[in-house]
Amino acid sequence: MIRHRSFEIQLENFRRESATAAQYIYAEMAIQHAASKSKKLLNRLNDTPTFWLSCGAALQSSAYISLGRIFDKNSKYNVAALLDAMEQNLELFQREGLASRKRNGSQIDPPWLSEYIEGAYYPTIKDINRLRAMVEKYRDIYERTIKPARNKYLAHREKEEHAEVKALFARGTVRELWSLTTFLHQLYEVLWEQLHNGRRPVFRSLRHSVKSIYDASNQRTSPHERMVGDVKKLMYFLETATPNPAIHRTLRDKAAQCL
């Protein structure tokens, strides 16, 4: 077996890349949302503006690079290769493959296994082609909104003028970026559940608005919601912590020297 063709290896790599992209995107936007909600917090962030501007730029750049690795067909590990590996290893998803995983190394079948196997869903090429069509829909978003900035500014500095750079990053909407990011997590969950539990590929809805996630009383376990929850905790600490006057004076004096 060629290593990069193994579906399970491809799926684990896809999990890492899609989670990384979601964490970077939602971290940057959650910080911005938190600052928009509180003038006190905004003033505290503005005590160290260079750090927060650099942090935002780094998060955005890293997110675009991660999304590029997911959609770049020249890479051995990308979403198209993932679905190719699924097709090439379709026997993994059939009855005996699922039964073997459910036995979990046991030589004796558990009493519930036969009924479980009978009720499981076994994908076909038609299912894979449906997933490919969904991926292509989101690839179109990537090609239009992410790839130009990634290739012409982040990876290769082909654009330098402020207006040109701004135009590269303004080719899509925030909602498209949220939709793209959450779709990748949905796709991972569908494939994982299909492989390990034989469940029909159904895409469950996910919250994607930073505001709705941040303002909720709790955050769920998906990577983008966990990140928003972490940012929320950090911003609360920064807003409510008692400042050290000596440190504040030092920061203020250094800022004045830069003017």
In words, what does this structure look like?
This protein has 259 residues and is mainly α. It has one domain. It is 72% helix and 0% strand. It contains 12 helices and no strands. It has helices spanning 7-37, 39-45, 49-71, 79-88, 95-103, 113-119, 125-155, 162-168, 174-197, 210-215, 223-240, 245-258. The mean pLDDT is 89.
What's the structural blueprint in terms of helices and strands?
Blueprint: H1 7-37, H2 39-45, H3 49-71, H4 79-88, H5 95-103, H6 113-119, H7 125-155, H8 162-168, H9 174-197, H10 210-215, H11 223-240, H12 245-258
Weakly predicted, low-confidence segments: none
Whole-number mean pLDDT: 89
The general outline is: elongated
Number of domains: 1
Termini separation = 61 Å
Per DSSP E runs of 2 or more residues, the count of β-strands stands at 0
The secondary-structure class comes to mainly alpha
* Beta-strand share of residues: under 5%
The major sheet is characterized as: none
With helices defined by DSSP (H or I, 4 residues minimum), what is the helix count? Answer: 12
Helix content: over 70%
Assembly type of the chains comes to single chain
From the structure above, extract its key features:
12 helices; 72% helix; elongated
Write a short abstract of this structure:
With 259 residues, the protein is an all-alpha fold.
